[in-house]
């Protein structure tokens, strides 16, 4: 016991000594303003921060906090780097991304640090000196009301790049190494940041895990507010329980079309091709509590139809996709009771995008927008966002030439971002490559039936997508499927092998909860309707 305590003490002293010796990194296009380091010892994190079962006990790491500014940007960007002890470091760096209107969150570092990575996050300057919640969109405009293009550029791509440069310098100093593998992991906005990193800074990362990427945010931002414009048009807010009734009916109708009734809509083409008619639910009772029910009306059905159809202009052009078929409406069409009155409860980043970036008034009453004002805001969003954050024209060939690998998985029941836009982008990349270059050589997309945005939902979740990416990068073994498993609401544990797009899962007999009962096959039916979005 005494020997063990001595070893622990020696390890702690070594960690503390290394943690005290840093010089300021040199960053092209930016200046590091400050660096502070401290030893974090025996720090524990609750399970809700990591998305995995069980708490993460006592982590030890060197916590390096830096502040920097980009040349001419008048910003203050914070970066945190967590460095595990040398004997716990796996020899890799994992950069983390953000979500919504935030460039990053420190809790995204917990799981990589627990897995032995040196890891980092950045606020991108969007907290305005740690004074605001980025989701409000307050950072999107300057005090004079003009768009803050500097901070928008940070969120778009610059913050992650600068973070990677700073972090690699700090990691090299701490461990005394010149080279190591670098990875990126992010979901939603963080997923989109991974795509821009690959296109704009192709040598920053050896591998990128970009989950449920929020591609085309200039369309997605206002698009996720569309349900409230629809409800305003119909002069009626829809209770959550009524939306839940429609969701159950959608799944009941569309589920068999993939060849198996299992509660999951497993084929991505059904996002556009399932011919569900919301009017078929009119007259049914929605259970809204133990002793309360609401009769579904034609107005409810019209609202649901418009939400599913997506944002369309007066000429019936599709500007943005509708809700993913079978997904919960509570993501982008949420309503709630307040003082016994039903009120809108929009997705905070959608509201923040409209207020902060487009209207540039964080107190604007966006629920009073007319249809004409909404489409004017949509057009303004396209105008200001396409060049800085847009997906059209992103070129991944440099990433391919640099030897990079990108792995994406997406839930087919994503309640915030219809996966069809991802499929459209993937297909456009495949079409742009030379004939002798296979997209699968460096970029693979996997579909997770029944899974929601980043996590949740009714379907099996990937077990170790980062492990699959590392195996691809370091051992040259590309993933053909991703292993997934979840405990379902009925208590059963379901396993699946997630299929690589454009393949889909087909049931071949046996236990529907067993991955061996399915095979992946490309039947030639692509993500229909995806090419009609303007933008």
Summarize the entry for a quick read.
Residues 1-16 form the signal peptide. The chain is 31% helix and 22% strand.
Low-confidence runs of at least 5 consecutive residues:
3-10
Number of distinct helices: 14
Strand segment tally: 20
- Measured distance between first and last alpha carbons: 66 Å
Q: Average pLDDT, to the nearest integer?
A: 94
Q: How many domains comprise the coordinates? A: 3
Tell me the strand percentage band: 15-25%
Structural class: alpha/beta
Radius of gyration: 24 Å
Strand count, sense and closure of the main sheet? 12 strands, mixed
Instruction: Identify the overall geometry.
Output: globular
Q: Largest beta sheet: what is the strand line-up?
A: 1-2-3-5-4-6-7-14-15-18-17-16
- What is the share of helical residues? 25-40%
Family: Belongs to the tannase family.
Keywords: Calcium, Disulfide bond, Hydrolase, Metal-binding, Serine esterase, Signal
Pfam family, one: Tannase
InterPro entries: AB_hydrolase_fold (IPR029058), Tannase/feruloyl_esterase (IPR011118)
Task: Describe the structure in your own words.
This protein has 535 residues and is an alpha/beta fold. It folds into 3 domains: 1-179, no CATH class; 184-215 and 397-534, no CATH class; 219-388, no CATH class. The chain contains 14 helices and 20 strands. It has helices at 2-19, 110-114, 149-175, 189-200, 217-223, 226-233, 240-254, 270-273, 298-309, 348-359, 371-389, 397-401, 420-432, 465-475; strands at 30-45, 56-70, 77-83, 92-96, 118-122, 181-187, 207-211, 285-287, 293-295, 311-312, 318-320, 335-338, 341-344, 405-411, 443-448, 461-462, 481-487, 493-500, 504-507, 518-521. The strands form 5 sheets. It has a 12-stranded mixed β-sheet with strand order 1-2-3-5-4-6-7-14-15-18-17-16, with helices on both faces. Strands 8-9 form a two-stranded antiparallel ribbon. Strands 10-11 form a two-stranded antiparallel sheet. Helix 5 (217-223) packs across helix 10. The radius of gyration is 24 Å and the shape is globular. Residues 3-10 have low confidence and may be disordered. Keywords: Calcium, Disulfide bond, Hydrolase, Metal-binding, Serine esterase, Signal. InterPro entries: AB_hydrolase_fold, Tannase/feruloyl_esterase. Its EC number is 3.1.1.-. Pfam families: Tannase. Residues 1-16 form the signal peptide.
